[in-house]
Amino acid sequence: MNRIDRLHAILTHLQSKRRVTAQEIADRFNISLRTVYRDVKALDESGVPVIGEAGSGYTIMEGYRLPPVMFSQQEANALLLGGKLAEKLTDGSIRQHFEAALFKIKAVLRSTDKENLDNLNNHIEVLRFRGPSDENADSHLTALQQSIAERRVIYIRYHSGGKEELSERMVEPIGLWYYSMYWHLIGWCRLRKGYRDFRVSRIQRLQLKDETFDGSVHPTLHGYIDSMKKDKSELNEAVVTMQNEFIRYIRESRYYYGFVKDEAAGDNCTRMYFMTGHMEYFARWLLTFTNAVKVESPQLLKDTMASFSKELHQHYAG
């Protein structure tokens, strides 16, 4: 990247956040801090109102706006791909805002790039399985983002999938986490007096309260995730081998059951590792593959599979 392009990119970066540190700029553009200082000084001398705050970072004077940005063809293609993902991996509240933003972005594209996007649009698709529990959860993500940004307490009516319970909670949200094909809300539950993981598709009702909370008393989302990786007391590892000819049937569904990794196991089989907190539920899923799957560990899973198999035999033999 030449210096002119870098100066333009640094200005865009400065406008993307309320405050940007010199180290952030250095890391993003792979340049030294000395170069950052020179580039920021050059922007200031060219008339850009950059305000430097000692020990804090740089800000752009309120009211200053960069003229409409022209996107490259590759950047426009990336936005199209992002739009496809947003369409299938978010809910209705997010999709309508993303579509509006994408129309504004397309308005500043060159004619050739607009034509390229139209041609490319019909050649990219994202497929996602949506279960019955997703059908009524189509408007929560926008409200959840607002509650996290403004540190507002939320009320939720939540349906627990494991215990089949319906409960009402007051929650202090700390973040949204996408894993195992679903969005999850992480927050401090006042009812349970602890941090809880709520699958967004199981939230039947949500209301933002006027009450705010002190976010400094909670960990960041990344801090929470790191602690979960260190503390797996509520999860158990399950190791199974499956015949390769059946693997194609579980490429996507295995993530619903805590899939971690796989490896070749010889004899045309694959060894798969899962982390699950519901061994009985996991065993019922494995049972659908009959003798195509073999449990290696733990013993509890082996015993559970044996018990289910015996019950099934008695049911049909009787």
TrEMBL record:
It comes from Pseudobacter ginsenosidimutans. GO terms for molecular function: DNA binding; DNA-binding transcription factor activity. Pfam families: HTH_11, WYL. The lineage of its organism: Bacteria, Pseudomonadati, Bacteroidota, Chitinophagia, Chitinophagales. InterPro entries: CBASS_pafABC_assoc_protein (IPR051534), DeoR_HTH (IPR001034), HTH_11 (IPR013196), PafC-like (IPR028349), WH-like_DNA-bd_sf (IPR036388), WH_DNA-bd_sf (IPR036390), WYL_dom (IPR026881). The keyword Mitochondrion does not apply. Residues 3-58 form the HTH deoR-type domain. Keywords: DNA-binding, Transcription, Transcription regulation. This is Putative DNA-binding transcriptional regulator YafY.
